[in-house]
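Course assignment 3, question 2. Fill in each field.
Student: A.L.
Task: Predict the tertiary structure for the chain below.
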Amino acid sequence: MNSEHEDRPARIVDPGDESRAELKQVVRDALHGADVMLAADALTESSMLIIERRKMQSLDNPPLSGRELGRPEHFHLVTTGTQCVLIHEKGGARYELREARCVAE
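Answer field:
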């Protein structure tokens, strides 16, 4: 395989409204429609993205143990050739980010 097409850890540079919206939609799709909140600087400092489950917002129906026991979801960003790809560690699904500009770490 040509080394220019191998996955290399990456980060997003100069994120704009379109690239942020695309990233949020890709993560939402990967998590089967779950509502997610992402920081404006998500994936700009590191190739790793960790999504934690939202804490219960209501006292009417709290979790039995009083806390959320679900595991966080892990994603990592890579460049493959000129493509910017977000990989969901759980299952290895790959999502190309067409609006984001990425650089190798």
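Instructor remarks: The radius of gyration is 16 Å. The chain has a mean pLDDT of 87.
Grade: pending
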